[in-house]
Each structure stands twice: as C-alpha cells, then as structure tokens.
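for ur thesis appendix - Carboxymuconolactone decarboxylase family protein. copy paste whatever u need, i formatted it the way the template wanted (i think)
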Amino acid sequence: MPRLPEVHRADVTDEKILFFYDRLFGPDKDPAVDHGTIHATPGDWWTVFANDPDVFGHAVRGFALYRGATVDPLLRELGQGRAGFARGSQFVFSQHCKQMRSLGMPEEKIAAIPAWQVSDLFTPLERAVLAYTDGLVLDGGRVPDGVFEVLREHLPPAEILQLTYITAMYDMHATMCKALRLEFDDVPERIAEVEIPDDVQVADLSADLAGE
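the 3d part is after this line
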C-alpha cells in the first residue's frame, strides 16, 4: 500500500480534487476505499496527492500544459515512456506505452523501447529523443552535443524546450511514484541480502578471492 495515507472523499474540501475523484472514479465511490479508475489503474496517485491541494493542483496543471504542447505527441510520449523505463517506474512506463499505442505507434516499436540502442526501428529523430531522454534521466542532464544537434535539426527551440520540460517532469513523477509506492510501483524492495541456509558453513570470502 502507499507510504502516505489516502484521502477519503468525505475529507476532501477542495473542488478541484472532488472534480477528479468524480471524473476518474465515479461520483458515488470513495476512491481511498473502492480503488480503480476508469483507466484501469488503482488510482492511489490521486488519493495520495490529495493530501496537499496545492501540490495536487500544481501537478494537474502540469498535465494540462503538456497536452497543449506543439511538439509531436508521439515524440512526447516516446520521451515519457523511456523516462519511466529508465527511472524504473512500471507505472509511468506502462501508462505511456498505452498512450503511444493509442497514437498509432506500432507494437514492435513500443516493445523495442527498453533496448532502443540496438533497434533499427526508430528514425534518427526518434533515436535522438530516446538518447536525449537517457541523458536527462540517467546522466543527470549531461547530453552530448551530437544528440542535441539532431534535435536542433528537426525541432524548433520551443519544441525542444517542451520536450525537455515534459520528459523531466515525468522523470519526477516516476521518482515520486517509486518513493511513495503508488500505483504499479507499490512493490517491495528487491535488493536484500540472500540468506544462507543454517547448515552451510560460510568461508572467508575475502581470503578466497585473495588466493589465501
């Protein structure tokens, strides 16, 4: 379950939040108890963000901003989907795979996103968008000049800025979903010490490696 409490419908006083509760869950449901949005997601992103109406409102305005951007929606979604994969957020990756599909991206291209570097399915601009996304998410904004030059060849400055902002915004959402264990990122930590059976005698590993 999420690491922060979910806000019950009865405790919501902000009209913006109630609007989205009604629209996404239905007017007769308490989404903090009766989970499930019209998009087939658990929906606890909404009920957890409702803990602070200002944060909720700012996040929702961000969604409105990116949907009004002029950059090609398929390029936008390619960046968002790759950001989710690179950050390790199943929720962000899964949702934007669906969005790419709805915009007409072929299944084989969606399936190739995790290993885009060795795929020949993407155009030079799409490869640049994927490389740019990796630079933003995996390299903390270090983007090689060659990658940026391809973007500049194909996109006007306003659309490069939009792509940068939207991709970075979804890197943030992916990070927050993992940290707060929201939606499909509500999973336990998988990196832990592997227990050795009690009947196995443990040798000095460092001595073995040193050849002693």
